[in-house]
Amino acid sequence: MGDIAIKVENLSKAYQLGDFGTGTLSRDIERKWALLRGKEDPFLRVGETNDRSTAGSSDVVWSLKDINFEIKKGDAVGVIGRNGAGKSTLLKVLSRVTVPTVGSVKIMGRVASLLEVGTGFHPELTGRENIFLNGAILGMRKHEIKKHFDAIVDFAGVERYIDTPVKRYSSGMYVRLAFAVAAHLESEILIVDEVLAVGDAEFQKKCLGKMGEVSKGEGRTVLFVSHNMAAINNLCNKSLLLKHGLLQDYDDTRVIIDKYINSGKESQAEVLGADIQVKKFCSRAIFCALRLVSSKRGITTNFATDEEVVIEFEYEILVDNTILSASIHLIDNMGTCVFSTFNGPSATINVDEFYGKPLVKGKYKSICKIPPSFLNTKNYSINAFLVPENMDDLGIAEEVLSFSMEETGAMRKEYTGEWWGIVRPRLYWSTERM
């Protein structure tokens, strides 16, 4: 296992619902004897996957089922999945908080884990005493803890309260100190669950920076669970995707995030009339149609990076003399707004003769064109807006269209990696000999 930090083979974790007994004393004794010998429970029925959205017939639920993967030393690995996918259960098994029902987990090195706010803290002890207690639980010697003590207190920002019992700490102070202890102690593997949501934005940024330093600078292995895809993307080079307790994929983080965000969501190239899901209605106008068009191939959800993306926006004015503009937000697969635009002069290179003028009742079409070689190779969605003079009367349709950009053959020859950034504009370049 030279360069392997964690190896998981055929891992499954089952939870019993309702009564834990088998029904007879003899079978209870047989089960206990099998478990004492390290054998599988002979009366554990093969239950159902961990799908909370449907009712089941079995009293056994597999929180994890047949999980296999290897994590190399120094890798930062994201664990991605929707609520109930098995993320926290996986981290608890890896942290040895709970044992697997079936399968094995091999871990090379000491593990520091932060699974819940204040895990391992004794409320009656002070912050100082809890630092030494946590260190001892992680297998650190007293002199090792002393070496990092000042750095832990400084990172957590709780110096003034270090000799105060932690039961008087706020939840934010709890998590600051808990993370600081886990990150600074000399463990080879750092496991962090979605606890950073408790901290403020500045502290979250500080934590992500520290985890990056731990992984890239110190060569330690990091496992990180989060619903923040931008944080996962910035920190982790690899990611696991879990769904209903099953491992869907283990790949480069960008690939996994794309798969996660687009799972269960179909690309939409055209939506008409009543099929447009409107979040907020405008009293003066309604959406009639929204579509994505390629000048070469017509209505489509797939565009090459070197072709123009055309967005057609049809709407009907319901009240005479309405002054209204059409607007879109382009959202990338991280949920980031790439840009917002509308048909007014500050956002267009041409003059839209209808902008800013009172419109009579009837149907209108606004067209927005995104130039070639502008968008990166990602999946995108479009939020559409009808914006009258009274901004409170907005019409909003969120993620009403979605599409993907794909690299062209010529570009693949020039550069085979991923282009950094949200957009990829063509800018003026020249080279001359000095």
UniProtKB/TrEMBL annotation:
Gene3D superfamilies: P-loop containing nucleotide triphosphate hydrolases. PROSITE patterns: ABC_TRANSPORTER_2. Residues 44-269 form the ABC transporter domain. InterPro entries: AAA+_ATPase, ABC_transporter-like_ATP-bd, ABC_transpr_TagH-like, Bact_Polysacc_Export_ATP-bd, P-loop_NTPase, Wzt_C. CDD domains: ABC_KpsT_Wzt, Wzt_C-like. It holds the Pfam family ABC_tran. Keywords: ATP-binding, Nucleotide-binding, Transport. GO terms for cellular component: membrane. GO terms for molecular function: ABC-type transporter activity; ATP binding; ATP hydrolysis activity. Belongs to the ABC transporter superfamily. This is ABC transporter ATP-binding protein. It comes from Mucilaginibacter psychrotolerans.
